[in-house]
Amino acid sequence: MEQLRVFSGIQPTGNIHLGNYLGAVKNWVERQDLYENIFCVVNSHAITIPQDPKILKEKTYELCAMLLACGIDPKKSTLFIQSEVQEHTSLAWLLTCITPMGDLSRMTQFKDKSQKNPKNIFAGLFNYPNLMSADILLYKSNLVPVGEDQKQHIELARDTAIKFNRDYGELFIVPEPLIQSEGARIMGLDDPTKKMSKSSGDKPNHLIALLDDSDTIMKKFKKATTDSEGIIAFDKERAGVYNLLTIYQCFTKESKEKIENDFAGKGYGELKAKVAEAVIEGLKPIRETYLKLTNEKDYLQKILKEGADHARSIAQVTYKEAKEKMGLI
User: Fold this and answer.
1) Could you give the count of Cα atoms lying within 13 Å of 175 in the half-sphere of its Cβ?
2) Which of 187, 208, 204, 183 is nearest to 196 (CA)?
């Protein structure tokens, strides 16, 4: 049977952290044999808010190296930089011309970002869901891995595909969200009621960056917010402890029952130390591989060029069909 095609994108802004890894990247790696995977570093999305050009370029290559270090295998998956395949922005324009402004104005991420940066609201921020739809539809993707909080953008891509197919003729596959259940939503260590986020990375104990050293990881976990109950159990109503146990389970792959039994009668101090040790051990090979890759720039460039060439070969065909169906020469 032909494999289903999966498209995933990640922005090269801030430092990739534990939430990105456990909620997305780790699952991408583990599913590489199940699907035909296309992984994209979406640097064109990043410029919807102002960026320092030099830093953006550096972060783009650093993220590509980190994805490879995490286990993305170029023999199994396609990895490339979004701006290297111009059909992404070309198709986004076609989709912009058939998307009602009301649909875009309802996007929660636009509302959130525009509230945080009221003096820096640009048309690209308003329109970027169309670029996201183009990313997905360009490769006739069957599945898109997303968290529950991102389903809205997949719904827009689905609506856009249905509208285009109805008005101009069958072309796009209507994508389905691929929701990860365990570990899909890792929360901040300082405030376990809020998702671990790059945008809160200026808070010293909020997130664990994948490049944090062992001492830093241990210190951050020791300061993690818990509660006063002193019982170690998978209880979603007790966000701090639940978050720590979720992280521990993601790295150890042990059952909830075993984990609760192992920590029965023990204190939060021991829980935090054990979680930190599991994270340190799990991230060690990633950091080592990352440092090696950043010293092999020619190899990294080769992988990204091959990935872009393959992605482009698919994207050009889809864009040509879309353009012709809309009456463009």
Assistant:
1) 31
2) 187
Q: If phi over 0 gives left and psi between -120 and 50 gives alpha, with beta otherwise, what is residue 265?
A: left
Q: What are phi and psi of 78, to 5 degrees?
A: -100, 125
Cα dihedral 148, 154, 156, 158 sign: negative
How far is 42 from 49, CA to CA, in rounded Å?
13
Cβ atoms of residues 91 and 137 within 8 Å = yes
Q: Dump pLDDT digits (tens) for 28-72.
A: 999 999 999 999 999 999 998 889 999 999 999 999 999 999 999
Average pLDDT (305-326) is: 98
Q: What angle do CA 51, 54, 59 make, to 5 degrees?
A: 80
CB 23 within 8 A of CB 198: no
Which residues are paired to 8 by β-bridges? 39
Question: Do the beta carbons of residue 140 and residue 173 sit within 8 Å?
Answer: yes
**Nearest C-alpha neighbor of 133 from the set 293, 47, 270, 9:** 9
Q: Which residue has the tokens 């430092």?
A: 15
Distance CA(116)–CA(193), nearest Å, equals 19
- Residue 190 in tokens: 């300082």
Residue count of the chain, please give it.
329
What letter would DSSP give residue 209?
Answer: B
Is 244 within 8 Å of 178 (Cβ atoms)? no
- Does this model's pTM top 0.85? My answer is yes
| Cβ neighbour number for residue 134 with a 10 Å cutoff | 28
Report d(CA 145, CA 178) in Å as an integer.
4
Q: What is the mean pLDDT of the chain?
A: 92
Q: CA gyration radius for the chain? A: 21
The catalytic residues are: 113, 195, 198
CB atoms within 10 A of CB 37: 25
